[in-house]
Amino acid sequence: MNLAKEIKRRRTFGIVSHPDAGKTTLTEKLLLFGGAIQEAGAVKSNKIKKGATSDFMEIERQRGISVATSVLAFEYEGIKINILDTPGHKDFAEDTFRTLTAVDSVIVVIDVAKGVEEQTEKLVEVCRMRKIPMLIFINKMDREGKDAFELLDEIEQKLNLTVTPLSFPIGMGYDFKGIYNIWEKNINLFSGDSRKNIEETVEVDNLNDDFLEQVIGEKFAEELRENVELVTGVYPKFNQEAYLNAEQQPVFFGSALNNFGVRELLDAFIEIAPPPRPKQSEERLIKPNEKDFTGFVFKIHANMDPRHRDRLAFVKIVSGVFERNTPYLHVRHDKKLKFSSPNAFFAERKEIVDISYPGDIVGLHDTGNFKIGDTLTEGEKIHYKGIPAFSPEHFRYINNADPMKSKQLEKGIDQLMDEGVAQLFTLELNGRKVIGTVGALQYEVIQYRLEHEYGAKCTYDTLSVHKACWIEPKDPKSEEYKEFIRVKQRFLAKDKRGHMVFLADSPFTLQMTQQKYPNVKLHFVSEYK
Ligand code: G4P
Q1: What is the three-class DSSP state of 524?
Q2: Pocket of ligand 1, candidates 257, 258, 259, 265: which has the most ligand atoms within 8 Å of its Cβ, to mutate?
Q3: CB neighbours (10 Å) of residue 81?
Q4: What's the farthest any 2 CA atoms get from each other in the chain?
Q5: pLDDT tens-place string over residues 21-62
Q6: Residue 49 and residue 167 in one domain
């Protein structure tokens, strides 16, 4: 076993996009290249279709698919690739934010016609803040869309990025001829007729060569020369260091559906994307090549079968080697646990693994020991940082609808919150429980799962809250803070970790409160230090 070698050959990343930009299609094409699947259509779309809001079977089906596609691992050119699934649906945005704590880089997919959309903006902002290296894939070049330069401008402005095109389209939509690969200095011709997996590559060492006219015709040859001149004049040269520091984002063009430009993307990706990176814990920076195993839970998935209450905790390995049947320290519980059947994930199956390396994800069977964010080590007491809770967008009181089942309800709520389905706040004044979610869909998911997995029934009452703010007083003993607590008593609650939260009912209240109590800081993220 050579730890350094195994680390070097791993790439763990996520694909982020607004729904419908082509994330699923691109994932599938990447898997085809890796030989992980044999035919298109094997990876089911994991998006929640419009109108599925009250269709519980649909929700269950989605949960099933989301287990299957949580991690897709395959080998390509000697590189072990782990793709972590990031739901595009905005109601599951929090799930995606948490998964982004476990990736070493991302590929951002943008629809050439729609440009930068809302979810892309939000997700890219998180990646930017975390300094995650990003590659951009502009998809659906076989369709009419925005002008490439216009789109690059839009990406720079809306996403606040510094782009550098590594490929450039020749025509688009009906006139799409192919792509000039600036990275490899060749042209991939698009065979619009067959629209199959065939692409013809022509080496073009010098764009001024007459040969170009023969390949793509006079009009496009002229246009390409001008465009490439503009690209080299306007955009910075690709710099791997800048890309790795999230200061520069290379852009590729293609059509995932037509399998066009995907191999180029993958080839560049394995060459430039980072292997597993060091990760900050509260105590110190942990490097992947440290001998001792450490890892953290970034996702928990409940068993699909309601008769078995066990869950699958997804652990990203940060350092050392994870081995089956070895006792590891669950730092929060200060207790050693052994795992007899850790799962590794492949495109269409999961199987028990004996040994895993940094960058890999293992699925551990759990009967309620884990919470999102938990750290596992060989004994050192470290705590990985960076799985924050964001202020939910929706808030409702939750009521017990079956007094005989209050224990079940409590347990169900507790476990669903550990999974990160929603956030629970308990009002200081009367102990009433408030559920906060990112999307309205979660309320139905919670109600359905409480009933089917825990045998408990709940109802909701409306509650007018604009934002949940985590409170940080400059001086907890100050008169100002005491007054804040007294005046705002009705709007104070504790989150699941016991941290005090202010539930502001409107943007106006929020503003007034901030003005009146300048020494009581209000944060929209639970982890603000
Ligand atoms: P998502 O995971 O990001 O939500 O997107 P997904 O891959 O499901 O793609 C959304 C739609 O866009 C799909 O069509 C897909 O076939 C289409 N698509 C993806 N890549 C390309 C491309 O390069 N060119 C063109 N023209 N279309 C592309 P759909 O009709 O919504 O679904 P389906 O019935 O084809 O699955």
Answers
A1: coil
A2: 257
A3: 25
A4: 83
A5: 999 889 988 988 877 666 655 555 444 444 434 455 566 666
A6: yes
172 in contact with ligand 1, CB cutoff 6 A: no
Polymer length of the chain: 529
Distance between CA 150 and CA 263 in Å, rounded?
A: 25
Q: How far apart, in whole angstroms, are the C-alpha atoms of residue 526 and residue 529?
A: 9
| Cβ pair 423, 496 in contact under 8 A | yes
* pLDDT tens figures, 124-180: 988 998 899 999 999 999 999 999 999 999 999 999 999 999 999 998 888 888 889
Q: What is the CATH number of the domain that holds 111?
A: 3.40.50.300
Q: Bigger pLDDT: 191 or 331? A: 331
Indicate the average pLDDT of the chain.
87
- Any ligand 1 atom below 6 A from CB of 140: yes
Q: Residue 370: which domain range?
A: 279-377
Please tell me if the CB atom of residue 47 comes closer than 6 angstroms to any atom of ligand 1.
Answer: yes
Residue 466, CA distances (Å) to 8, 263, 337, 480, 506 in order:
46, 46, 41, 23, 5
C-beta of 44 in contact with ligand 1 (< 6 A): no
360 SS3 class: coil
For residue 64, the model assigns a pLDDT of: 59
**In this predicted model, which residue has the larger pLDDT, 91 or 397?**
397
On whether both 97 and 245 belong to a single domain, the answer is: yes
Burial 445-458 (b: 16+ CB within 10 A, else e): bbbebbbebbebbb
pTM for this predicted structure: 0.85
Domains contained in the chain, number: 3
Pocket test for ligand 1, best of 20, 83, 188, 265 (most atoms within 8 A of CB): 20
Q: List all residues 6 or more positions away from 492 whose beta carbon is below 8 Å from its beta carbon.
A: 427, 428, 429, 485, 500, 501, 502, 503
Residue 140 and residue 74 share a domain: yes
Work out the average pLDDT over 358-368: 92
At position 399, the amino acid (one-letter code) is: N
**SS3 letters for 34-88?**
CCCCCCCCCCCCCCCCCCCCCCHHHHHHHHHHHHHCCEEEEEECCEEEEEECCCC
Hey, what are 46's tokens?
A: 């994991």
Rounded to a whole number, what is the distance in angstroms from the first to the last CA of the chain?
39
Q: Are residues 294 and 310 in the same domain?
A: yes
Which residues make beta-bridge pairs with 199? 190
